[in-house]
């Protein structure tokens, strides 16, 4: 079976390559991404399995597939990580204006790799340029690290995604000015959503957070959060856990909870700490 990869740009010709299931598609997709980045373009993956190592998504590029996945299985364009030395499947390293949509990401190796890693540099953060990254309609499943790992992220959105059955957290955040809308955060070994380091000014609406091994939501030293109309159910630890971030920020402040259902969670700190992975 051949899978078609095309980089399409309204101001230039289409670029198409093919990849066969069972072969490494990393270079073919990376070449399309780099070519699309020259003018700001779109790389579309047709349905099929693409075995990959880490793909670096440039600024102002969209990587798009058809979101035909379901709750229990991948579908459409499936990016399958097969490199056990890789840090992540998709790397967005100090990028602006990237768009990830309609993909299934999964891991076939036993490692601590993340599904998607958005990372900014230590120096000068927050920076003058917001990330403005959008992740939408994606299924991120089965990684040994976090489903989505956000490191010093600034101004981004994660919408309509299923982030499930990753060994650490569904989403782990150090950053601010994020929108988390209408996602499933299900069956992760750690928390559905967890923060580390400096975090705040985030909006969390309409998410279902269920069956995670630790807390449904864990915020450490956060500020200016809006939680509205979320369903938090059957998590191994507390549904919502607000903790200090010591010694930097001993409290959480300006946090609003409205219209959420927090149901059937086990307030077991022994269970929570037993599954804690060293940071």
Give the structure's gist in a few sentences.
This protein is mostly beta strands and 279 residues long.
Structural overview:
The chain is mainly beta. The protein has two helices and 25 strands. A hairpin with a 6-residue loop joins strand 1 (2-8) and strand 2. The chain starts with a strand and ends in a 5-residue tail after the last helix.
Strand content: over 45%
Number of strands: 25
Overall pLDDT score: 88
In whole angstroms, the N-to-C terminal distance is 42 Å
Name the poorly predicted regions: 11-17, 271-279
Set out the fold topology.
Elements: E1 2-8, E2 15-20, H1 26-37, E3 42-45, E4 48-52, E5 55-56, E6 62-64, E7 77-81, E8 88-93, E9 99-101, E10 103-107, E11 114-119, E12 133-136, E13 139-141, E14 148-159, E15 162-164, E16 171-181, E17 184-186, E18 193-205, E19 208-210, E20 217-220, E21 223-228, E22 231-233, E23 240-243, E24 253-258, E25 261-263, H2 269-274
Parallel strand pairs: 3-6, 4-7, 5-8, 6-9, 7-10, 8-11, 9-12, 10-13, 11-14, 12-14, 13-15, 14-16, 15-17, 16-18, 17-19, 18-20, 18-21, 19-22, 20-23, 21-24, 22-25
Antiparallel strand pairs: 1-2, 1-3
Essential attributes:
16-stranded mixed β-sheet; 279 residues; disordered C terminus; mainly beta; globular; 2 helices
């Amino acid at each position: 079976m051949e899978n078609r990869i095309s980089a399409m740009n309204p101001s230039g010709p289409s670029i198409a390559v093919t990849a066969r299931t069972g072969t490494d598609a990393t270079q073919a997709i990376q070449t399309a991404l780099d070519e699309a980045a020259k003018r700001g373009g779109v790389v579309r993956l047709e349905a099929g399995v693409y075995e990959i190592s880490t793909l670096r998504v440039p600024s102002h590029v969209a990587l798009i597939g058809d979101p035909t996945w379901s709750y229990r299985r991948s579908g459409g364009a499936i990016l399958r990580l097969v490199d056990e030395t890789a840090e992540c499947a998709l790397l967005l390293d100090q990028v602006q204006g990237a768009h990830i949509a309609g993909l299934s990401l999964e891991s076939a190796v036993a490692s601590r790799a993340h599904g998607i890693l958005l990372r900014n540099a230590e120096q000068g953060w927050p920076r003058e340029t917001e990330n403005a990254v959008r992740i939408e309609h994606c299924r991120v499943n089965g990684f040994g690290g976090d489903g989505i790992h956000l490191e010093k992220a600034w101004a981004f959105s994660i919408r309509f995604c299923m982030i499930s059955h990753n060994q650490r957290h569904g989403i782990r955040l150090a950053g601010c000015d994020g929108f988390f809308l209408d996602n499933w955060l299900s069956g992760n070994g750690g928390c559905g959503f967890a923060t580390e380091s400096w975090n705040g000014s985030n909006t969390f609406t309409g998410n279902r957070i269920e069956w995670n091994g630790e807390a449904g939501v864990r915020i450490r030293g956060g500020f200016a959060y809006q939680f509205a109309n979320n369903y938090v159910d059957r998590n191994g630890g507390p549904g919502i856990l607000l903790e200090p971030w010591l010694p930097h920020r001993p409290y959480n402040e300006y946090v609003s909870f409205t219209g959420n259902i927090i149901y059937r969670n086990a307030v077991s700190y022994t269970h929570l700490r037993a599954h804690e992975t060293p940071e």
